[in-house]
What we know:
Order of helices and strands: HHEHEHEHEHHHHHHHHH
Keywords: Cell membrane, Membrane, Transmembrane, Transmembrane helix
Distance between the termini: 39 Å
Protein name: ABC transporter permease
Strand order of the largest sheet: 2-1-3-4
Strand content: 5-15%
Number of helices: 14
Membrane topology: Multi-pass membrane protein
Shape: elongated
InterPro entries: ABC-2_transporter_component, ABC2_TM
Main location: membrane
Number of domains: 2
Radius of gyration: 29 Å
Largest sheet: 4 strands, mixed
Structural class: alpha/beta
Number of strands: 4
Helix content: 55-70%
Amino acid sequence: MLTQLNIQFLRLMHRWKMLLFILGFPVVIIWFVLPFLNTAIEQSTVPVAWVDQDKTEFSTLVKERVSDSSRLSLVETSENRAEQLVQRGEVEAAFILASGFEKQLRSGEAEEVIRWMRTESSSLDTFAKEQIAAESIRLMLNSRAGVFVQTLSEDITFEEAFQKADSYWEPQPLFRMEYERIQPGTERGAVGLPLSLQGLLSLLLVYGMGVQVFLMKVRYEDAETGRLQRLKVTRGNAVSYYTNVFFLHLAFLGVLIGIVCATIVVRAEIDLSILNPWVFRLGILLVMMQIFVLLLAVWLPKPKAFFFIMTLVILTSVLLKGSPVVLFDTGGFGEWLPHGWLFNEGWRG
Length: 349
């Protein structure tokens, strides 16, 4: 067994240029792409459909204040069109201000005058909901103040009382609710892994699976040259061969993950304790995938069938569950794929 391990190791080292490229390529990508990825996420906006059926001063004011947010992008449209945009995933959600919106707020009542349309795949629209609700409550409380002051003194008009009440909301309201975004798997107050780094780990999983497939080429090369068949004849089986291939490739993947994670820690200036749970999860997934790749290679004698199935698995995993935010799979099938396990909340903690 040790002889076979030495042989496989020397054959792997014979391709040292390719190995250096495999190890160095993600390092270069992370070092130069991570800053641009962080900037892109920070500057990204949440598209939200906006339907104003009231067409009044209050509805216009809410729209203007919400539009001032750098994280929201309002798309003015009709109710039917808004529903289509939500269903197609072109917007995160749709908010419909019904007729009578201003009348209700001026009366100081809080009936259902705002409709919120979303789908199960919507994940970033909560911020928009809270901001729209906050602006509506602001107008309603100002209106209540105006009505209350008018009942006490006829010398102060409704508008004067309204504007005076509104001034207490700037630069910050006298009372406010603070919303804290907590990533799944983290305790309150704990620092979660930034979305940009979660995206990098998603790409690293793709890269790692691709490396596993590439390294398994040796099995088909040995079968083509007759080396694998001779080993079966002399030893009676190829168990030692596949065992050595498995552990040697796994060790190489361990070196790859270690180098990449060290690069992430240095470049992103992030505490290793934050990254560790994700690295552990990634390592477990790659071990599981290595077992799957090996069994598939043993079972399939034709390299074309092997590479086709692995390409299909990787592409499906990326398309259905390859993003830490937007998950395109609604049937639950993607939960059983590698990226589904990577972003599964049950693994976090």
